[in-house]
Protein backbone atom coordinates (compact mmCIF):
# COMPACT_ATOMS: atom_id res chain seq x y z
CA UNK A 1 0.00 0.00 0.00
CA UNK A 2 1.20 3.47 -0.87
CA UNK A 3 1.23 6.11 1.84
CA UNK A 4 1.50 9.87 1.73
CA UNK A 5 2.45 12.23 4.46
CA UNK A 6 -0.23 14.61 5.72
CA UNK A 7 0.85 16.95 8.50
CA UNK A 8 3.22 14.33 9.92
CA UNK A 9 0.79 11.46 9.74
CA UNK A 10 1.05 8.72 7.17
CA UNK A 11 -2.21 8.19 5.27
CA UNK A 12 -2.82 5.31 2.91
CA UNK A 13 -3.33 6.73 -0.58
CA UNK A 14 -6.44 4.58 -0.94
CA UNK A 15 -9.24 5.32 1.53
CA UNK A 16 -12.19 3.08 2.32
CA UNK A 17 -15.51 4.77 1.55
CA UNK A 18 -18.38 3.62 3.76
CA UNK A 19 -21.23 4.43 1.38
CA UNK A 20 -21.37 1.26 -0.73
CA UNK A 21 -21.15 -1.47 1.86
CA UNK A 22 -22.78 -4.82 1.07
CA UNK A 23 -26.47 -4.84 2.05
CA UNK A 24 -29.22 -7.39 2.62
CA UNK A 25 -31.97 -7.79 -0.03
CA UNK A 26 -31.00 -4.59 -1.80
CA UNK A 27 -32.09 -2.52 1.22
CA UNK A 28 -29.57 0.32 1.55
CA UNK A 29 -30.41 0.70 5.24
CA UNK A 30 -29.62 -2.91 6.09
CA UNK A 31 -25.88 -3.51 6.00
CA UNK A 32 -24.78 -7.12 5.63
CA UNK A 33 -22.60 -6.96 8.71
CA UNK A 34 -20.77 -10.21 8.19
CA UNK A 35 -19.68 -9.36 4.65
CA UNK A 36 -19.02 -5.72 5.50
CA UNK A 37 -16.90 -6.67 8.53
CA UNK A 38 -14.85 -9.00 6.33
CA UNK A 39 -14.23 -6.03 4.01
CA UNK A 40 -13.05 -3.80 6.86
CA UNK A 41 -10.77 -6.54 8.18
CA UNK A 42 -9.29 -7.09 4.72
CA UNK A 43 -8.85 -3.36 4.21
CA UNK A 44 -6.89 -3.11 7.45
CA UNK A 45 -4.87 -6.20 6.54
CA UNK A 46 -4.02 -4.63 3.15
CA UNK A 47 -2.78 -1.47 4.87
CA UNK A 48 -5.70 0.92 4.33
CA UNK A 49 -5.80 3.23 7.34
CA UNK A 50 -8.38 5.85 6.29
CA UNK A 51 -12.09 5.11 6.73
CA UNK A 52 -14.73 7.53 5.53
CA UNK A 53 -18.33 7.56 6.68
CA UNK A 54 -21.13 10.10 6.98
CA UNK A 55 -24.36 10.79 8.86
CA UNK A 56 -26.55 9.88 5.90
CA UNK A 57 -24.74 6.90 4.37
CA UNK A 58 -26.81 3.71 4.37
CA UNK A 59 -29.73 5.60 5.94
CA UNK A 60 -27.65 6.41 9.00
CA UNK A 61 -26.33 2.87 9.49
CA UNK A 62 -22.85 3.38 8.02
CA UNK A 63 -21.54 5.34 11.00
CA UNK A 64 -22.91 2.76 13.43
CA UNK A 65 -21.43 -0.13 11.49
CA UNK A 66 -18.04 1.50 10.90
CA UNK A 67 -17.75 2.44 14.57
CA UNK A 68 -18.55 -1.12 15.64
CA UNK A 69 -16.27 -2.78 13.09
CA UNK A 70 -13.30 -0.55 13.85
CA UNK A 71 -13.45 -1.02 17.63
CA UNK A 72 -11.67 -4.33 16.99
CA UNK A 73 -8.54 -2.27 16.26
CA UNK A 74 -6.54 0.16 18.41
CA UNK A 75 -7.98 3.64 17.97
CA UNK A 76 -4.62 5.11 16.99
CA UNK A 77 -4.07 2.53 14.24
CA UNK A 78 -6.58 4.05 11.78
CA UNK A 79 -8.08 7.38 10.81
CA UNK A 80 -11.83 7.92 10.85
CA UNK A 81 -13.64 10.63 8.90
CA UNK A 82 -17.24 11.74 9.13
CA UNK A 83 -19.20 14.80 8.05
CA UNK A 84 -21.77 17.37 9.10
CA UNK A 85 -24.91 16.65 7.03
CA UNK A 86 -25.41 20.12 5.58
CA UNK A 87 -26.96 18.64 2.43
CA UNK A 88 -30.19 18.80 4.47
CA UNK A 89 -30.63 22.40 5.57
CA UNK A 90 -32.97 21.29 8.38
CA UNK A 91 -29.81 20.06 10.12
CA UNK A 92 -28.18 23.47 10.45
CA UNK A 93 -29.73 24.42 13.80
CA UNK A 94 -28.74 21.00 15.21
CA UNK A 95 -24.98 20.91 14.75
CA UNK A 96 -24.17 20.16 18.39
CA UNK A 97 -26.77 17.41 18.79
CA UNK A 98 -25.71 15.81 15.51
CA UNK A 99 -21.99 15.96 16.25
CA UNK A 100 -22.40 14.44 19.71
CA UNK A 101 -24.61 11.72 18.28
CA UNK A 102 -22.02 10.96 15.59
CA UNK A 103 -19.31 10.42 18.21
CA UNK A 104 -21.67 8.07 20.01
CA UNK A 105 -22.66 6.20 16.84
CA UNK A 106 -19.03 5.76 15.86
CA UNK A 107 -17.99 4.77 19.42
CA UNK A 108 -15.15 7.24 19.35
CA UNK A 109 -14.07 10.22 21.47
CA UNK A 110 -12.85 12.08 18.37
CA UNK A 111 -12.85 12.18 14.59
CA UNK A 112 -9.48 12.30 12.87
CA UNK A 113 -11.08 14.07 9.93
CA UNK A 114 -14.37 15.92 9.84
CA UNK A 115 -15.96 17.57 6.81
CA UNK A 116 -18.59 20.12 5.95
CA UNK A 117 -20.53 17.69 3.77
CA UNK A 118 -21.55 18.57 0.22
CA UNK A 119 -21.12 22.35 0.21
CA UNK A 120 -23.29 23.45 -2.70
CA UNK A 121 -25.32 26.26 -4.20
CA UNK A 122 -28.40 25.53 -2.11
CA UNK A 123 -26.73 25.28 1.31
CA UNK A 124 -23.78 27.67 1.18
CA UNK A 125 -25.80 30.51 2.69
CA UNK A 126 -26.61 28.24 5.61
CA UNK A 127 -22.99 27.19 6.01
CA UNK A 128 -21.86 30.82 5.98
CA UNK A 129 -24.65 32.12 8.21
CA UNK A 130 -23.25 32.86 11.69
CA UNK A 131 -26.75 32.36 13.09
CA UNK A 132 -26.26 28.58 12.78
CA UNK A 133 -22.67 28.74 13.98
CA UNK A 134 -21.63 25.52 12.24
CA UNK A 135 -18.11 26.74 11.53
CA UNK A 136 -17.63 28.18 15.04
CA UNK A 137 -18.90 25.02 16.67
CA UNK A 138 -16.67 22.73 14.61
CA UNK A 139 -13.59 24.91 15.10
CA UNK A 140 -14.29 24.78 18.85
CA UNK A 141 -14.50 20.96 18.69
CA UNK A 142 -11.15 20.98 16.96
CA UNK A 143 -9.72 23.13 19.74
CA UNK A 144 -11.10 20.60 22.25
CA UNK A 145 -9.42 17.73 20.38
CA UNK A 146 -12.67 16.12 19.22
CA UNK A 147 -11.78 16.87 15.61
CA UNK A 148 -8.19 16.59 14.46
CA UNK A 149 -8.51 17.92 10.91
CA UNK A 150 -11.26 19.97 9.28
CA UNK A 151 -12.13 19.92 5.61
CA UNK A 152 -15.09 20.03 3.23
CA UNK A 153 -16.57 18.04 0.41
CA UNK A 154 -18.24 19.61 -2.58
CA UNK A 155 -19.79 18.98 -5.98
CA UNK A 156 -20.50 22.69 -6.41
CA UNK A 157 -19.55 24.98 -9.24
CA UNK A 158 -16.39 27.04 -8.95
CA UNK A 159 -17.92 30.34 -7.77
CA UNK A 160 -19.58 28.59 -4.85
CA UNK A 161 -16.38 26.82 -3.84
CA UNK A 162 -14.51 30.11 -4.12
CA UNK A 163 -17.07 31.79 -1.88
CA UNK A 164 -16.75 29.05 0.72
CA UNK A 165 -12.96 29.26 0.67
CA UNK A 166 -12.95 33.05 0.88
CA UNK A 167 -14.94 32.70 4.10
CA UNK A 168 -13.45 29.57 5.67
CA UNK A 169 -10.25 28.88 3.71
CA UNK A 170 -8.11 29.53 6.78
CA UNK A 171 -9.94 26.79 8.73
CA UNK A 172 -9.79 24.15 6.01
CA UNK A 173 -7.02 21.56 5.80
CA UNK A 174 -8.23 19.55 2.79
CA UNK A 175 -10.81 19.70 0.02
CA UNK A 176 -12.77 16.67 -1.19
CA UNK A 177 -14.03 16.80 -4.78
CA UNK A 178 -15.35 14.59 -7.54
CA UNK A 179 -12.29 13.92 -9.65
CA UNK A 180 -11.68 11.43 -12.42
CA UNK A 181 -10.54 11.56 -16.04
CA UNK A 182 -14.02 12.44 -17.32
CA UNK A 183 -14.71 15.18 -14.77
CA UNK A 184 -11.29 16.74 -15.35
CA UNK A 185 -13.09 18.82 -17.98
CA UNK A 186 -16.76 17.81 -17.61
CA UNK A 187 -17.15 19.01 -14.01
CA UNK A 188 -14.24 21.49 -14.11
CA UNK A 189 -12.18 19.33 -11.78
CA UNK A 190 -9.00 20.78 -13.31
CA UNK A 191 -9.97 24.27 -12.13
CA UNK A 192 -11.06 22.92 -8.74
CA UNK A 193 -7.67 21.27 -8.25
CA UNK A 194 -6.02 24.60 -9.13
CA UNK A 195 -8.24 26.36 -6.60
CA UNK A 196 -7.28 23.87 -3.89
CA UNK A 197 -3.64 24.50 -4.73
CA UNK A 198 -4.15 28.27 -4.48
CA UNK A 199 -5.38 27.73 -0.91
CA UNK A 200 -2.61 25.26 -0.13
CA UNK A 201 -5.10 22.39 0.32
CA UNK A 202 -4.42 18.77 -0.58
CA UNK A 203 -7.15 17.12 -2.63
CA UNK A 204 -9.26 14.22 -1.42
CA UNK A 205 -10.93 12.41 -4.33
CA UNK A 206 -14.44 11.00 -4.44
CA UNK A 207 -16.02 9.17 -7.37
CA UNK A 208 -12.61 8.16 -8.79
CA UNK A 209 -14.38 5.87 -11.29
CA UNK A 210 -17.61 7.89 -11.55
CA UNK A 211 -19.73 5.33 -9.73
CA UNK A 212 -18.18 2.45 -11.70
CA UNK A 213 -18.85 3.98 -15.16
CA UNK A 214 -15.10 4.29 -15.81
CA UNK A 215 -14.43 0.70 -14.81
CA UNK A 216 -16.32 -0.55 -17.84
CA UNK A 217 -15.18 1.08 -21.09
CA UNK A 218 -16.06 0.37 -24.71
CA UNK A 219 -13.97 -2.08 -26.74
CA UNK A 220 -12.69 0.80 -28.84
CA UNK A 221 -11.53 2.75 -25.80
CA UNK A 222 -9.88 -0.31 -24.28
CA UNK A 223 -8.08 -1.07 -27.55
CA UNK A 224 -6.55 2.41 -27.56
CA UNK A 225 -5.42 2.02 -23.95
CA UNK A 226 -4.21 -1.53 -24.43
CA UNK A 227 -1.80 -0.31 -27.12
CA UNK A 228 -0.18 1.95 -24.53
CA UNK A 229 -0.13 -0.27 -21.42
CA UNK A 230 -1.06 -3.86 -22.17
CA UNK A 231 -3.05 -5.78 -19.60
CA UNK A 232 -4.18 -2.79 -17.57
CA UNK A 233 -7.84 -2.75 -16.48
CA UNK A 234 -10.14 0.23 -16.96
CA UNK A 235 -10.25 0.71 -13.19
CA UNK A 236 -6.46 0.83 -13.03
CA UNK A 237 -6.38 3.50 -15.75
CA UNK A 238 -8.73 5.54 -13.59
CA UNK A 239 -6.49 5.31 -10.55
CA UNK A 240 -3.27 5.85 -12.53
CA UNK A 241 -4.82 9.05 -13.90
CA UNK A 242 -5.36 10.27 -10.35
CA UNK A 243 -1.80 9.38 -9.40
CA UNK A 244 -0.74 11.81 -12.12
CA UNK A 245 -2.67 14.81 -10.78
CA UNK A 246 -0.44 16.95 -8.52
CA UNK A 247 -2.01 17.70 -5.15
CA UNK A 248 -4.06 14.51 -4.91
CA UNK A 249 -3.48 12.97 -1.50
CA UNK A 250 -6.39 10.67 -0.75
CA UNK A 251 -8.44 8.58 -3.17
CA UNK A 252 -11.67 7.29 -1.68
CA UNK A 253 -13.31 4.22 -3.10
CA UNK A 254 -16.61 2.75 -1.96
CA UNK A 255 -15.72 -0.91 -2.17
CA UNK A 256 -18.52 -3.46 -1.95
CA UNK A 257 -16.74 -6.76 -2.51
CA UNK A 258 -13.52 -8.44 -1.50
CA UNK A 259 -12.71 -8.71 -5.22
CA UNK A 260 -12.91 -4.90 -5.70
CA UNK A 261 -10.90 -4.34 -2.56
CA UNK A 262 -8.22 -6.78 -3.69
CA UNK A 263 -7.97 -5.22 -7.16
CA UNK A 264 -7.77 -1.70 -5.75
CA UNK A 265 -5.13 -2.64 -3.18
CA UNK A 266 -3.10 -4.35 -5.89
CA UNK A 267 -3.23 -1.14 -7.96
CA UNK A 268 -2.20 0.93 -4.95
CA UNK A 269 0.83 -1.25 -4.30
CA UNK A 270 2.73 1.14 -6.56
CA UNK A 271 2.56 4.55 -8.13
CA UNK A 272 2.60 4.50 -11.93
CA UNK A 273 1.55 7.92 -13.21
CA UNK A 274 0.62 8.43 -16.85
CA UNK A 275 3.00 9.85 -19.41
CA UNK A 276 1.86 12.65 -21.72
CA UNK A 277 0.71 10.32 -24.50
CA UNK A 278 -1.33 8.22 -22.08
CA UNK A 279 -2.86 11.32 -20.50
CA UNK A 280 -3.78 12.75 -23.92
CA UNK A 281 -5.30 9.46 -25.04
CA UNK A 282 -7.47 9.27 -21.95
CA UNK A 283 -8.63 12.85 -22.49
CA UNK A 284 -9.39 12.06 -26.14
CA UNK A 285 -11.52 9.11 -25.05
CA UNK A 286 -13.22 11.32 -22.46
CA UNK A 287 -14.06 13.91 -25.08
CA UNK A 288 -15.57 11.28 -27.35
CA UNK A 289 -17.61 9.78 -24.49
CA UNK A 290 -18.94 13.17 -23.45
CA UNK A 291 -19.70 14.46 -26.94
CA UNK A 292 -21.64 11.31 -27.74
CA UNK A 293 -24.18 12.21 -25.10
CA UNK A 294 -23.80 15.96 -24.89
CA UNK A 295 -25.87 18.81 -26.36
CA UNK A 296 -23.12 21.03 -27.83
CA UNK A 297 -23.99 24.29 -26.04
CA UNK A 298 -21.00 26.64 -25.83
CA UNK A 299 -22.63 28.80 -23.12
CA UNK A 300 -22.42 31.90 -25.33
CA UNK A 301 -25.65 33.17 -23.69
CA UNK A 302 -27.01 34.69 -26.94
CA UNK A 303 -30.30 32.93 -26.36
CA UNK A 304 -30.92 34.06 -22.81
CA UNK A 305 -32.32 37.52 -23.46
CA UNK A 306 -34.72 36.07 -26.03
CA UNK A 307 -36.41 33.79 -23.55
CA UNK A 308 -39.74 35.24 -22.40
CA UNK A 309 -39.60 32.91 -19.40
CA UNK A 310 -36.21 34.18 -18.27
CA UNK A 311 -34.70 30.68 -18.26
CA UNK A 312 -30.98 30.27 -17.78
CA UNK A 313 -30.81 28.13 -20.91
CA UNK A 314 -27.04 27.31 -20.94
CA UNK A 315 -27.20 26.27 -17.30
CA UNK A 316 -30.21 24.06 -17.93
CA UNK A 317 -28.48 22.47 -20.92
CA UNK A 318 -25.36 21.83 -18.82
CA UNK A 319 -27.57 20.09 -16.26
CA UNK A 320 -29.27 18.12 -19.02
CA UNK A 321 -25.84 16.94 -20.14
CA UNK A 322 -24.89 16.00 -16.61
CA UNK A 323 -28.15 14.10 -16.16
CA UNK A 324 -27.58 12.24 -19.40
CA UNK A 325 -24.01 11.35 -18.72
CA UNK A 326 -24.49 10.35 -15.11
CA UNK A 327 -27.92 8.77 -15.48
CA UNK A 328 -28.98 10.09 -12.09
CA UNK A 329 -27.09 11.38 -9.08
CA UNK A 330 -27.77 14.39 -6.93
CA UNK A 331 -25.92 17.21 -8.74
CA UNK A 332 -28.86 17.88 -11.06
CA UNK A 333 -31.62 18.06 -8.41
CA UNK A 334 -29.41 20.18 -6.15
CA UNK A 335 -28.69 22.74 -8.85
CA UNK A 336 -32.26 22.83 -10.11
CA UNK A 337 -33.32 23.65 -6.58
CA UNK A 338 -30.94 26.62 -6.64
CA UNK A 339 -32.48 27.91 -9.87
CA UNK A 340 -35.86 27.89 -8.17
CA UNK A 341 -39.48 27.49 -9.21
CA UNK A 342 -40.33 29.29 -12.45
CA UNK A 343 -36.85 28.64 -13.88
CA UNK A 344 -37.07 24.92 -14.55
CA UNK A 345 -37.31 22.91 -17.78
CA UNK A 346 -41.07 22.58 -17.19
CA UNK A 347 -41.35 26.39 -17.45
CA UNK A 348 -40.31 26.40 -21.12
CA UNK A 349 -43.38 27.28 -23.22
CA UNK A 350 -41.84 25.99 -26.46
CA UNK A 351 -41.92 29.36 -28.27
CA UNK A 352 -38.54 28.65 -29.93
CA UNK A 353 -37.50 32.32 -30.00
CA UNK A 354 -34.20 31.24 -28.40
CA UNK A 355 -33.45 28.87 -31.27
CA UNK A 356 -33.41 31.69 -33.83
CA UNK A 357 -30.21 33.09 -32.32
CA UNK A 358 -28.41 29.90 -31.35
CA UNK A 359 -25.19 29.61 -33.41
CA UNK A 360 -25.08 25.89 -32.66
CA UNK A 361 -28.59 25.33 -34.05
CA UNK A 362 -29.64 23.55 -30.90
CA UNK A 363 -33.30 22.60 -30.73
CA UNK A 364 -33.58 24.14 -27.31
CA UNK A 365 -37.32 23.69 -26.85
CA UNK A 366 -36.94 19.98 -27.60
CA UNK A 367 -34.08 19.68 -25.13
CA UNK A 368 -36.21 21.33 -22.43
CA UNK A 369 -39.13 19.04 -23.21
CA UNK A 370 -36.93 15.96 -23.09
CA UNK A 371 -35.21 17.13 -19.89
CA UNK A 372 -38.57 17.68 -18.23
CA UNK A 373 -39.79 14.26 -19.33
CA UNK A 374 -36.72 12.63 -17.80
CA UNK A 375 -37.12 14.59 -14.58
CA UNK A 376 -40.80 13.59 -14.44
CA UNK A 377 -39.80 9.96 -14.90
CA UNK A 378 -37.48 10.36 -11.91
CA UNK A 379 -40.09 12.34 -9.96
CA UNK A 380 -37.83 15.40 -10.01
CA UNK A 381 -39.64 17.82 -12.34
CA UNK A 382 -40.77 20.07 -9.48
CA UNK A 383 -38.72 21.37 -6.56
S1 LIG B 1 -38.43 27.76 -26.31
FE1 LIG B 1 -38.38 27.68 -24.10
S2 LIG B 1 -36.27 28.15 -23.61
FE2 LIG B 1 -36.60 28.84 -25.69
S3 LIG B 1 -37.20 30.98 -25.52
FE3 LIG B 1 -39.06 29.79 -25.54
S4 LIG B 1 -39.52 29.44 -23.39
FE4 LIG B 1 -37.38 30.08 -23.48
S1 LIG C 1 -27.36 30.33 -27.91
FE1 LIG C 1 -27.13 28.12 -28.15
S2 LIG C 1 -24.96 27.73 -27.71
FE2 LIG C 1 -25.41 29.79 -26.97
S3 LIG C 1 -25.96 29.48 -24.81
FE3 LIG C 1 -27.86 29.42 -25.95
S4 LIG C 1 -28.16 27.24 -26.37
FE4 LIG C 1 -26.05 27.47 -25.79
Describe the structure.
- The chain has 383 residues and is α/β, with parallel strands linked by helices.
- The chain folds into 2 domains: 3-282, NADP-dependent oxidoreductase domain (TIM Barrel); 304-377, no CATH class.
- The chain has helices spanning 33-46, 61-70, 95-105, 124-128, 134-143, 158-168, 183-186, 189-198, 219-226, 234-244, 258-267, 276-293, 313-326, 331-339, 364-377; strands at residues 3-6, 9-12, 14-17, 23-24, 27-31, 50-52, 79-84, 111-119, 147-154, 174-178, 203-206, 248-253.
- The strands form 3 sheets. Strands 3-6-7-8-9-10-11-12 form an 8-stranded parallel β-barrel, surrounded by 5 helices. Strands 1-2 form a two-stranded antiparallel ribbon. A two-stranded antiparallel sheet has the order 4-5.
- A hairpin with a 2-residue loop joins strand 4 (23-24) and strand 5 (27-31).
- Helix 1 (33-46) crosses helix 2 (61-70), helix 13 (313-326) packs antiparallel against helix 14 and helix 13 (313-326) crosses helix 15.
- The longest helix has 18 residues, at 276-293.
- It is globular, with a radius of gyration of 22 Å.
Amino acid sequence: MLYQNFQNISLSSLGFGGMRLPVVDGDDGQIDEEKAKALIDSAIYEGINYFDTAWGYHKGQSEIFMGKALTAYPRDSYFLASKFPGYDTANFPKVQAIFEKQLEKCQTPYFDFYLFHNVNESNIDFYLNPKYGVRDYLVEQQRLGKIHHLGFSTHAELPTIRRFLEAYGDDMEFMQIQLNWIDWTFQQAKEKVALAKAYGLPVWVMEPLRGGKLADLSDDAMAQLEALRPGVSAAEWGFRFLQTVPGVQMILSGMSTIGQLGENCHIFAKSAPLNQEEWDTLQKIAKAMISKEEVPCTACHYCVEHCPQGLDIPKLIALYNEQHFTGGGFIVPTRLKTLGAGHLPCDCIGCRSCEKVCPQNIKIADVMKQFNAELLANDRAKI
